[in-house]
């Protein structure tokens, strides 16, 4: 039995795991979970993921949920295969972990709030709350100012090597920039924009995104 991912192409967190598997060159099976039909809330699914969210990873006897935990596990298990995502030295690994946490605690929260309003809410036939968008955009822009400073001195977030820290930003930023049409906040920051153009041109990202359309 190999790697099995239970998830949905509608979930940026599922996409994060799939992009990583492509970077690592790991064979895997994707079992689609129909979120619209509530398959993530069935008793069978809740036994694997008690919070009713995707993705879930199965690797032999291991069942693992939370996308960042999954990506760390895969990067460690397949270290030395495909793209190295963790850094080589202790310093590099520490910086990768630091920026993974920055993405989780500072970047993703306002970003997903914006995406919910400008991408998902209209798709549900509801009206976007522009006050929420404005407030969350202001929060995100402060974060992006910090990213711009970091990326002025380094090609990637943890240094001059592509890592898990960069990869984790791909699906959510795609929703914000390409689907939500909020790319102007990236274009206004040249080093940030160059970073985004770089990481979003990776074959792994393009391959997975092609499956979502």
Description:
With about 210 residues, the protein is of the alpha+beta class. It has helices at about 10-25, 45-50, 65-75, 90-125, 130-155, 165, 170-180, 185, 190-200, 205-210; strands at about 5, 30, 55-60, 60-65. The chain has a 4-stranded mixed sheet, with helices on one face. Strand 1, helix 1 and strand 2 form a beta-alpha-beta unit. Helix 1 crosses helix 10. The chain starts with a strand and ends with a helix.
Q: How far apart are the first and last residues' alpha carbons, in Å?
A: 29 Å
Helix content: 55-70%
Task: Supply Rg.
Answer: 17 Å
DSSP strand (E) fraction?
5-15%
Strand order of the largest sheet: 2-1-3-4
Helix segment count? 10
The low-confidence parts are: none
Write down the secondary-structure element order: EHEHEEHHHHHHHH
Average per-residue pLDDT, rounded, comes to: 97
Overall number of strands:
4
Helix-strand makeup class: alpha+beta
Please identify the oligomeric state: single chain
Outline: globular
The major pleated sheet works out as:
4 strands, mixed
């Amino acid at each position: 039995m190999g790697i099995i991912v239970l998830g949905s192409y509608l979930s940026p967190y599922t996409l994060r795991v799939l992009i990583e598997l492509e970077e690592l060159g790991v064979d895997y099976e994707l079992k689609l979970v129909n979120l619209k039909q509530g398959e993530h809330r069935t008793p069978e699914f809740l036994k694997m993921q008690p919070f009713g969210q995707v993705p879930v990873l199965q690797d032999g006897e291991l069942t693992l949920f939370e996308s960042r935990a999954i990506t760390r596990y895969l990067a460690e298990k397949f270290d030395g295969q495909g793209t190295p995502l963790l850094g080589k030295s202790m310093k590099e690994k520490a910086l990768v972990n630091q920026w993974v946490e920055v993405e989780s605690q500072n970047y993703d929260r306002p970003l997903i709030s914006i995406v919910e309003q400008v991408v998902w809410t209209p798709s549900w036939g509801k009206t976007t709350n522009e006050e929420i968008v404005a407030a969350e955009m202001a929060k995100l822009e402060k974060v992006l100012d910090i990213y711009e400073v970091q990326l002025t001195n380094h090609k990637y977030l943890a240094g001059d090597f592509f890592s898990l820290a960069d990869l984790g930003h791909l699906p959510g930023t795609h929703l914000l920039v390409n689907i939500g049409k909020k790319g102007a906040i990236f274009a206004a920051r040249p080093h940030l924009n160059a970073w985004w153009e770089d990481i979003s041109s990776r074959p792994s990202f393009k391959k997975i995104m092609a499956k979502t359309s």
